[in-house]
Design goal:
Elements lengths: L1 H16 L2 H11 L8 H15 L3 H8 L5 E9 L4 E3 L1 H9 L13 E13 L2 E12 L5 E13 L5 E9 L1 H11 L5 H23 L10 H11 L13 H8 L6 H8 L13 H6 L12
Parallel strand pairs: 1-6
Antiparallel strand pairs: 1-2, 3-4, 4-5, 5-6
Bound molecules: 2-acetamido-2-deoxy-beta-D-glucopyranose (4 copies).
Keywords: Signal
Length: 294
């Protein structure tokens, strides 16, 4: 016991003097990556995540900038978009993205949830959850969204990895767009494209100035988004599409210097066609904790 206390104190002293990167390294060696929580606690942890994900609880997480829901070294992957590494980026994408925003986009506000399938073993939790969303850009329509999650938790009860799939996302996407004009889905899509491109360009004008600027004018922005790239299918939210830029638009207010490039012509490493289908399917991304028991 005494030894342990001395060890913790030594760590605390070492951490006080260390740079953030050194602290992160220190933490990852001090905090066990593969604790054995068991089913009941994993289910409680899972419920806790959805509670914090829910609006308005997510506002508090977003304001914290570095949510303690995530480990410093968290690795995340979201189907149909990209991978997100580190606590700050994940606080923005998992909590900040779903808070109210002036942007016109397909992103909704999460409400109550119901976990409908769950299994948990050791530090791995697998769940399928129905979350009720309202969609402000679609006349506040309410729709349930089915989200399948694989999570690993570290000893500090932080999410160290997540692998998330929005089940039936293409169907949700189509349902949302069609809700704008049920009699004429093509017109509905046109209206959605104009509204989203306008919104991205307005955000660019407001936040992406100086070295963060991506377009010389509003016209150039609108023309690029509506004429020179694809609108994007449901699986193309991490590709060279308007839909991808529309998702990233919401992040810009948090850190314009980091996120403005994502709505620009190159896509800033988040919205481009660099990842082929086979690469996507065979990618080996996760290193913090195994997904299978050894
Ligand atoms: C959030 O964490 C990052 C990475 O550790 C750090 O650089 C940044 O200063 C932190 N921000 C706040 C507000 O704590
Ligand atoms: C989601 O909304 C539907 C329709 O309003 C409602 O019946 C259902 O109970 C809600 N789900 C949860 C988990 O609150
Ligand atoms: C949607 O709901 C929000 C908040 O409840 C409200 O401020 C907004 O005016 C509503 N939008 C529409 C189109 O009804
Ligand atoms: C960009 O705009 C912000 C306010 O939105 C301002 O503080 C900053 O000085 C501007 N930067 C440049 C380079 O114009």
């Amino acid at each position: 016991m005494k030894l342990l206390t001395a060890f913790s104190m030594a760590c605390a002293i070492a951490m006080a003097a260390a740079t953030p990167v050194e602290q992160a390294l220190e933490r990852s060696t001090v905090i066990g990556q593969t604790p054995d929580f068991g089913y009941d606690e994993l289910l409680i942890l899972q419920q806790g995540f959805w509670e914090r994900f829910k609006y308005p609880n997510n506002l508090k997480e977003a304001e914290s900038i570095n949510s303690t829901m995530f480990s410093e070294d968290v690795q995340g992957r979201v189907s149909d978009t990209r991978n997100f590494a580190g606590r700050e980026l994940n606080t923005e994408y998992i909590f900040g993205l779903f808070t109210p925003s002036d942007a016109t986009s397909i992103i909704g506000r999460p409400g109550d949830h119901e976990i409908v399938q769950f299994v948990g073993v050791k530090n791995i939790a697998v769940a399928s959850t129905r979350v009720n969303f309202t969609f402000p850009s679609f006349r506040n329509i309410s729709l349930p969204v089915r989200i399948d999650t694989w999570l690993t938790w570290n000893e500090a009860r932080e999410i160290s990895q997540y692998d998330v799939t929005f089940r039936w996302f293409g169907y949700l996407f189509q349902t949302l767009i069609a809700s704008l004009n049920p009699a004429d889905p093509l017109e509905a899509q046109k209206a959605a494209v104009t509204a989203m491109a306008t919104s991205v360009c307005n955000t660019h004008t407001t936040y992406c100035n100086g070295t963060s600027s991506q377009y010389e004018s509003r016209d150039e922005c609108f023309n690029f988004l509506t004429q020179q790239i694809r609108v994007g299918q449901s699986f193309e939210l991490g590709m060279n599409t308007l839909m991808c830029r529309s998702v990233h638009e919401i992040m810009i207010k948090y850190r314009p210097d980091v996120h403005c490039p994502h709505i620009g012509k190159t896509g800033g490493g988040m919205c481009d066609d660099s990842i082929g289908y086979e690469e996507k399917v065979t990618e080996k991304y996760f290193v913090n904790s195994p997904w299978m028991l050894q």
